Amino acid sequence: MDDNWDDLRLFLAVAREQSLSGAGKLLRLDPATLGRRVARLEKALQVALFVKSPQGYALTDAGADLLVRAERAEQAMRAATAVLSGQSDRLSGQIRIGAPDGCANFLLPQVCGAIAAENPELDIQVVALPRVFNLSRREADMAIGVSAPTAGRLLVHKITDYHLHLAAAAHYLAERPAPDSIAALRDHRLVGYIPDMIFDRELDYLADLGIARVPLASNSVSVQLHMIRQGNGIGVVHDFCLDAAPGVRRVLTGAVSIKRAFYLIRHADDQRNPRLSRFAERLSAGLRAEVARLEAKA
């Protein structure tokens, strides 16, 4: 049994990383050794699990079928371990969340801090990256997104709506007239995303306003906010960020009000994992409450 699970664990790593070198780093195994183990598993099963090429290891149909079964076994193993270690009442172990950096910087510290205080044996890892996470490769146990994916074997539920407005530093506005229309924005420096690095159409706020040029840009919400705080221009800001940016105030609120949503995204097989499900419920509730609290102060 132990050998069978170990073989599945190695198979899962190669399937998710699509290479021996990537899987070897995760498992701390030499790629050559890992390659021999994969070959041994294929021989034992009498079927090819991967198509090998210079580009990496791609799953065959048989490999894709085994991946589904192996992930189910992985979830069953995690659930059994949780029960045997007494995790049924209190969360413990490690849970990794992928999130866009606005959520990761301005919401998750409070929400995850509260969950950690309730569960002292729980380790929460927040990976803040402005991109979409690959849950099939187990880059994270769950992810927060700004749109609901439609492809893949995923569980997706809406957490909450949130709002954004144009904003600028008070000292920036003291030096020039505040814009009184969208057309007047052309007379101001604008702060926003790097156009070709916007990873989700929902983040292309300025294009919706007919604005093509962004003189000061970053792929990070935090960098954009700091640019605005320094008096460098006007940009779209999450209402829940304003509490952390004293001196920044909203402008043109009557003309520009943007609504978006956060979604919790999980691998489909995780719905049978009570530990991750309880954490997901607590995380979603915490985010809803924190967005409401901070937006009320905006």
From TrEMBL:
Family: Belongs to the LysR transcriptional regulatory family.
Organism: Sulfitobacter aestuarii
Keyword Cell inner membrane among UniProt keywords: no
Cleaved signal peptide residues: none
Highest taxon in the source lineage: Bacteria
Xref: Gene3D superfamilies: 3.40.190.290, Winged helix-like DNA-binding domain superfamily/Winged helix DNA-binding domain
Pfam families: HTH_1, LysR_substrate
Protein name per Swiss-Prot or TrEMBL: LysR family transcriptional regulator
